# Entry
Amino acid sequence: MPRLALVLMLCLAACAESDSGPPAGLGDMQDWRFASGKPPTHAEYAAVVAACQDGAVKSSKAGALDACLADLGLKRVP
# Structure
């Protein structure tokens, strides 16, 4: 029984480590603006990126993060 508990604890620790990284795409959040011109907060940008990565939004280009962000109202600033 103690071995089973140890294995379960290690599995939970491994799962927790894989979720601790920042969402992909957070590095270039300064390049994006809402239609109003206001830059998104870290939480807003993370939520939009997560929605795109989870497949909540079906964009015309399958798998393109930029297209998905544009579909959700963010515009890239030159």
User: Anything to note?
Assistant: The longest strand covers residues 32-34.
